[in-house]
């Protein structure tokens, strides 16, 4: 028969999805609602569980990218491990089909607890242990197994209340599952992350997951449960909700304690902006440190070495109009403004929160010399690639205007003060296409200064930047600046204990056509760390690490590595 009552018991065993011997009588589920309503409620729970499952998945990817770095690798690890584990979970769920109702209730309670607490545990392992990779793989595996067990158990439950053919049932289940995944995938970046943050967002998702799974089993299928099973499910779900609620109440205290473990006791400002987490430590007589997404970006102890080396060699020549890409902290603009004949400085920064802090935080604004109070400085909130393309690219139909102070929409100097090229999110800003846009924004005789990673620690990355600039039509002059890493830094480069380590910044001065001469302008201000002999020495030391014949990096083939 093509269409058969799915509630008929299979031969040689308990009813399909029914309870073990001693449970409710064989046959269809004894529902407190009509079968159509029961089917609708099951599909609604499929929708909710799918949304929660995808939130857990995205939460792991986002937090791993923040704590470990290299978002492509972390996403690949989480997704591949989770999909593999889902297959295992589906196979294991076959053994639970005779106890589908109580099995689904316990699976959802476990998933709510693990998924809801996953962000807390990952952050704790990073803060106090210093390593979160093993926890990441463990959570991906466990959550994947539990998600994989959901559909077989739900398939069993819906067949007990619906006389629809198996193909139609599968189609309905997967439709609800995919739509739920869509909602969860959109809710995570647009609702949960900006409104609640990673930790509270995961806890709330776990609570919703537990309530949906528990309500379905304890209400719709309560007559199929033995008193002992019903008591067990009530106890487990109440316990899970209590743990999630307690964690939500204590999450702020936990986050403060974890920040102290990561950054020390000097945390003064910690905000989640529209783009990233921004932390300021020190100030008020102590050296100021700026962290973005857990990575040390600015240290008052030696930032002047970096910013002087980045900006001043590029100012040798015309420098009336200057464009700073990145540099929302205002420190590169500070160095540019030391030249009295600079007429305009445009700062293109992705994160308006960093610019706000650079304007308003007393310690950071003092460090940048109150650069944003200068009428010559104009801050633009935009992605540097998109902004260059919109203003300078071949398609200007979006109506984006250039710098009003620029005579022909070009700049004498462009300073690329961007995160390291090895960070996945920054790769496009070190591509041949990006440098082609930058070249089009340069006035005749203009220069481009690029922060390119460390030639000592990451020579392949550094020289790939150089090769990419040359492929975009630039002549290049590589050099470096010596700096110091603090005894404790966060993120993938964190170093715990021991004396301060020495390090360096790799820089490239570029100009269309021939390599520009490395030097200082005749009207250069007095510098704390940079002299002509030091520049010559820094260029020789950078050249010692040269890697020849490296291919350029492009948007479709990024080539940055260690």
Describe it.
The chain has 562 residues and is α/β, with parallel strands linked by helices. The protein folds into two domains: 35-261, Growth Hormone, Chain: A (Up-down Bundle); 300-543, Vaccinia Virus protein VP39 (Rossmann fold). The protein is elongated, with a radius of gyration of 29 Å. It has a seven-stranded mixed sheet with strand order 7-6-5-8-9-11-10. It has a four-stranded antiparallel sheet with strand order 1-2-3-4. Helix 8 (331-336) links the parallel strand 5 and strand 6. The chain has helices at 35-68, 71-93, 100-129, 133-161, 166-220, 227-263, 303-311, 331-336, 352-360, 362-367, 384-392, 432-440, 459-471, 532-543; strands at 267-272, 277-283, 286-292, 295-299, 321-326, 344-349, 377-381, 411-417, 442-451, 474-485, 501-512. 50% of the residues lie in helices and 15% in strands. This is Polyamine aminopropyltransferase. Residues 537-549 have a biased composition (Basic and acidic residues). It is found in: Cell membrane. One of its GO terms (cellular component) is plasma membrane. Pathway: Amine and polyamine biosynthesis; spermidine biosynthesis; spermidine from putrescine: step 1/1.
